[in-house]
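User: Structure with aspartic acid, tokens only please.
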Amino acid sequence: MSLIVQKFGGSSVADAESIMRVARRIVATRESGHDVVVAVSAMGDTTDELVDLAHQITDVPDPRELDMLLTTGERISMALLAMAIKSLGYEARSYTGSQAGMMTTAQHGAARIVDVSPDRIREALDDGAIAIVAGFQGFNRDSKDITTLGRGGSDTTAVALAAALDAEVCEIYTDVDGVFTADPRIVPKAHKVDRVTFEEMLELAAAGAKVLHIRAVEYARRHGVTIHVRSSFADTEGTFVIGDRGENMEEPIITGVAGDLSEAKITVIGVPDIPGKAAEIFTIVAGTGANIDMIVQNVSAQATALTDISFTLSKTDGEKVLKALRVAQEKVGFTDIAFDDNIGKLSVVGGGMRTNAGVSAQLFTALFEAGINMEMISTSEIRISVITRGEDLTRAMQVVHAAFGLDGDADAVVYAGTGR
Ligand code: ASP
Ligand code: MG
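Assistant:
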């Protein structure tokens, strides 16, 4: 019998009624002749609520205890889901991450899976049961402690189970019909794509598309797991995330448009244009642990031999990086720093860019015609990203989506939830 791993996110199991609906869906898969293993997220916004609760107790919750707290969210949903399946007359057993053999590194809040030994899951399947596994959590052998994989980590749980159990497919159930050419909440004319490659999915996720956890995509690519992203509210086929499109299928020039409002821009003004200064600045930034995204250095003004260096980073890292740079201002010798947290990042992604000239020109023309200014530009082989004003991002996404001929005939259906 072939095995299917199914993952249900928080919005799919938000209340008792939804849990029953998901249970019927799982049972239908079982009835169609498959073994089923399920990874489940915490109900609705439970994880956020637990984080809030911890912060009502203390500003800096102990990482070990925070993981203890957050993993309870998935224990609630897994137990209720197992009960729901049993009430439909099928055998089901729930397992915590550690019971399911999810072995991770010790790092609380951001543990990585190092090994999966799903012996108990196999036993359950051998007994004819449906196995339900708590998403987003694991266990470290050395510290003997419970860990979490980071926010959104249930996708990674599902993919890791699919790899370890050699599943036919890993189905990720969500509140939209699949992967779209843009977030349908922002671009109503977005349409579902049937297939997307791992490479494109990684670029889209990095560009701010919230469909799949980026680590889940990396894991799937490394282990050759086919992912099927589909709606838990409808029966239609969703989007398959695959290795490549094969020889006969032409790659679309643009597969998707993504937007991201989570970044800020720091400009270091009046930097002496001599070797070593950029190295100094970015060593200071790296020392704070912040990840930077785009970097732009201006041509230096001839009269002064001073230049400006701008870079983008996560808004949440802004404060600490500013502080570290100010401390080093005299030593590095720059004039000033500017911080701008009202920026938007627009990205277009598509494997076909590799073999098609003029994609940048088309993108820039669309933005120009809409009167939207670009402040920074960066490219990879299959992606172009530009920084705009924050308030221009929605319109920018809509005009670019139209300019590349991605607009569908009808508005997309959004079933529930907030995008996760
Ligand atoms: N419940 C966790 C979170 O909200 C894990 C997940 O949903 O994937 O981050
Ligand atoms: Mg969640």
